[in-house]
Amino acid sequence: MNLFLNPSLEQWADGGAPNTEPDDWINCGGLGLEAVPDACPSAVPETAADGARYGRGYGFEGIGQVVETTPGQTYLVSLSYTEVVMCYGGATSSAWDVRLDEEVLLTTAADVGTDTWAVETVEFTATAASHEICFRKAGGAGGIDALSIVAQ
After folding, report:
1. Residue 80, pLDDT score
2. pLDDT tens per residue across all 152 residues of the chain
3. From CA 64, how far away is CA 35, in angstroms rounded?
4. 8 A C-beta contact, residue 47 and residue 53
5. What are the residues facing 134 on neighbouring strands?
6. pTM above the 0.90 mark?
7. What is the rounded distance in angstroms from the CA atom of residue 32 to the CA atom of residue 30?
8. How far apart are CA 75 and CA 47, in angstroms?
9. Domain spanning 26-151 has what CATH number?
10. DSSP letter at 15?
11. Distances from the Cα of 97 to the Cαs of 20, 24, 129, in angstroms?
12. Contact 111, 83 (CB under 8 A)
């Protein structure tokens, strides 16, 4: 069972405006994200990895959630990610950091292209009753979608 709420980033209370967070997510770097295609209908890629929307981050923007965990239990975190060409230009990079309580667990590849969604996973063992999992851009414009965390 996926412990993230709104894992496909479909719900945005403000319609996915720039520098915001999807519902149930918190800002954990920079100014927040924006929903594609809502904020930029001509963005590439045009389709999400899962559902109708995906989040676009730039620079060091990010989103996260605090999830309840069981100390000693192993968890698998996964994300779909891509490079994004936006309406207003800017450097593209698919690199995202996956962070556990601000410690980088994984940095994804920076050059997967804008015509595909790549998937990465990383495991961790819980050391507390809850942990903050953050997905934070590592430079450039990139998309993120289909986020999950499951107990192993």
Report:
1. 97
2. 999 999 999 999 888 888 889 999 999 987 788 898 888 887 888 889 999 999 998 888 999 999 999 999 999 999 999 988 877 666 688 899 999 999 999 999 888 887 789 999 999 999 999 999 999 999 888 899 999 999 99
3. 15
4. no
5. 64, 99
6. yes
7. 6
8. 28
9. 2.60.120.260
10. S
11. 19, 20, 23
12. yes
Distances (CA, A) of 83 to 15, 30, 73, 90, 128: 22, 18, 33, 11, 34
CA dist 127 and 143 (Å) reads 30
How far is residue 148's CA from residue 6's CA, in Å, rounded to a whole number? 10
pLDDT for 141 equals: 85
> Cα(137)–Cα(121) distance, rounded to whole angstroms?
16
Distance in angstroms (rounded) separating the CA atoms of residues 131 and 38: 31
Q: For residue 24, give both structure tokens.
A: 């149930």
Over its C-alpha atoms, the chain yields an Rg (Å, rounded) of: 14
